[in-house]
Amino acid sequence: CVPLCPSYTLDNDLLSTEQRQFYEDNGYLLIKKLVSDDDIERFRKEFTRICKREVKPPGVMIMKDESLKSQFGQSEKVVNKVQDFQEDEELFRYCTLPEV
Question: What's the family (predicted)?
């Protein structure tokens, strides 16, 4: 990267140099066990409830991969993104976790 290339991470003690570089190169970073298994299960259940339309938070948009319909039908497995979920208290709680 040339010196004028923007950096998306801060030079601090939260991430290692290798983690920062991986994020800069790939746009994501996987940190295993950052969020508890209990929380992940709660978020997964709420995600499924939204996909099945058991709850309908205002403004939420469900994006589906139509190419998976023949394999999974209308299940949540065809959903690749739930967008604008800030009105769903349980799912939005993920964004407010101190770990995140």
Answer: Belongs to the PhyH family.
Residues 6+ apart with CB under 8 A from 62: 50, 51, 79, 81, 82, 83
Residues 6+ apart with CB under 8 A from 46: 55, 88, 90, 91
33 pLDDT tier (thresholds 50, 70, 90) = very high
Q: Are residues 71 and 86 in the same domain?
A: yes
Range of the domain at 7: 1-30
Residues 53 and 77 placed together within one structural domain of the fold: yes
Average confidence (pLDDT) over 40-66: 87
